[in-house]
Amino acid sequence: MARPRGVSVGIALLLGTAAAFAASLPPRIGHAARHGVSAKPIRDLKLPPRASAAPGARRILDAPAVPRPGSSASPRDARVQHHPGPSALDPFLNFDGAAMNDNLPFSGNEVIPPDANGAAGPDHYVQAINTVFRVFDKAGNLVLGPLPNASLWTGLGGVCETFDPNTPFVKYDTLANRWFVGQVTFDVDDASVHQCIAISTSGDPTGTYAQYDFVIDVASGSPPHPIANASRFGVWPEAYYMTVNQFGDSGNAGFGIYAFDRAAMLAGAPASFEYVNPGADHPQTAWGIPSDLDGATPPPDGSPNFALALGASFIDGSPGDVVHVWKFHADFANPGNATFSGPVDVPIADFDPLDCGNPNLGKGCVPQAGSSQLIQAEPSLLTYRLAYRNFGDHESLVTTFTVDGAAPANRAAVRWLELRDPNGSPTIYQQGTYAPDASYRFLGSIAMDRSGNIALGYSKSDDTIHPSLAVTGRLVGDPPGTLGEENAFFEGPESLPPVVGFWGHYGAMAVDPSDDCTFWFTSEYIGAPAPFFEYSRIGSFKFPSCTSGPSGTLQGAVVDATSGSIAGARVTAGASETLTDDFGHYQFLDLPAGTYDMTASKFGYTTQIVDGVVVNEDATTTQDFVLPAAPTAVLNGVVRDGSGGNWPLYARVRIAAPGFPGATLFTDPVTGYYYASLVTGISYTITVDAVTPGYASAQIVLPFDGAASLADTVGAASAANTGVQ
């Protein structure tokens, strides 16, 4: 199949040498301190209530440090997208996930933030938050739970079984048809840090699990030491890779990478890990994130896992805005053959950093309706996941981070990027900052389906709404660097009270292996205290064009009969939509074979319709459109006093309509007269504000056919009044 057009905007710089990482090779080796297989399926567990702190106690995880910029400068981000494209994701299911109140029967307390995480398998969706998990069927019905996360290690002994673990990760290993659950915990007796991993023994998430307890740090060990709640996981053919922030005797120590022996754990056998340390040479570069396989096509044989981290002058002293790329390939049969290299520094478009304050002091930067508490957006670090796909003709990685989308206003927005050729000459294929309006968007998670379509989920809030969950996306053929219309599919009923500003370190966007098309997104929201107020929501979405069946390509150009190509025209083919690029070209890639009714439209032109366009399997169909200019007419009028004086007013007149970029004009200060040339055949919303103080705004909706007459609308005293003459 043809792949989408695009422009590479980055080049690879500064390849780290093997000598630079002599301290990391060969890797440090560790072994599971405990391992076993659960004696009975977790669906058969009968767990008694556990001893706890006082009911309703809140245990707050320290917020790992996030980099803070210096004083704001002039806006630098040229990739801010203020107007969304058409490729909207329509949710067909959303339902409640686990809640902090689920802890009450087991421990009576909560560990905040929730850190909602989940994955879809062939028949189930499994979701975990800090200390509890639930299993659902694909219709959103509860199958199992809530149960404590620690119950997955029942019978193993040690702290994985007996102490509430945190920072949960749930993954479905598509290549093996197994479930992976990883959590970290801490032994208060000897101050050791344990990574707990459970691997299902079948594709049934309610069955038995191979259980592992890896001691990844001891108090008496040499630095660096892992920061327990600052880890990320990725599935790869030879290992389950984990990145984790570190600290040393003098503070930050970058991040480390662990590779856990996947083949051994799938077999339920004794397992080891290998550890390398990018932080040895880059102590200020934190929040690395490992690549995480999506789809049934593995990376090329022998491919390393890729770990990315964000770099900038205020983060780690990088001379420009970059993503650092490290490569680590573990070898458990012969650890001396393990390879580790990097970083390759890949330039990204300049971004404006968001200053969200110190999270450990309750600081934040995101407003919400009805609460004085500002939410912590955790900016300037790559957010979970780093989703990887092998498309055959190219390899892609996608990830996100939070920036200031309206510098210097300090308004949170999501920067997203797609990096290609990570094992060759990594480059940024496309990127953008999604900020279509004045709301704040943060804590994004992103993934690609089998066709290369992208879905981005995130939290959204401002001073007029409660924190909400939203998704947007793009078709593989959309103009590079653009996302479609937003779907805010769930608004929480409450706002975060003034207790703490934490909003979780991650949400999770996953892809359903059943069709490799359906996206599943989970993150937190705020509800009524009972006694806890942190809840989570799960939603699923799909682009209509994504299919595992026969497909083809539909492309063409949209032009003006007189002036050439039309950029930004909306083209539909059945339920699929896209926009033309700067050259008037559009394309639908991997469109299901069939017959489509098509439209092409843009404000200022007459919409054209073509029915019965046939798309054949593995073939390219071309359908061009010529759009004639739409007829226009002059709308004019006078703005007058509406309190009885009827005198002309100097006023601002704003004209808006769907697809219309909008117009703002001012009346003549003496006569109150205004005029505008407008396309006919649509309705305009006209908003009038007097420049002179003391007048209320007036707004009217005018169906404009070129001959319409707008009668004077006399408002209450001191109200502005418009009329067309």
Q: Mind explaining what this structure looks like?
A:
The chain is 2% helix and 47% strand. It is mostly beta strands. The longest helix has 5 residues. The protein is globular and about 85 Å long.
Question: What secondary-structure arrangement, pairings included, does this model have?
Answer:
Layout: E1 28-37, E2 58-60, E3 80-81, E4 90-96, E5 110-112, E6 117-120, E7 124-129, E8 132-137, E9 142-148, H1 159-162, E10 166-173, E11 178-187, E12 192-200, E13 209-217, E14 225-235, E15 239-248, E16 251-261, H2 262-266, E17 272-276, E18 289-293, E19 305-311, H3 313-316, E20 322-329, E21 339-347, E22 366-368, E23 371-375, E24 383-390, E25 395-404, E26 412-420, E27 427-434, E28 440-448, E29 454-462, E30 465-474, E31 487-491, E32 508-511, E33 519-526, E34 534-542, E35 551-560, E36 564-565, E37 570-573, E38 576-579, E39 585-592, E40 594-601, E41 608-615, E42 620-622, E43 625-627, E44 632-641, E45 651-656, E46 663-666, E47 673-679, E48 682-690, E49 698-704, E50 720-723
Parallel strand pairs: 2-5, 3-27, 18-24, 35-42, 35-43
Antiparallel strand pairs: 1-13, 1-17, 4-34, 6-7, 7-8, 8-9, 10-11, 11-12, 12-13, 14-15, 15-16, 16-17, 18-19, 19-20, 20-21, 22-23, 24-25, 25-26, 26-27, 28-29, 29-30, 30-31, 32-33, 33-34, 35-36, 35-39, 37-38, 37-40, 40-41, 44-47, 44-50, 45-46, 45-48, 48-49
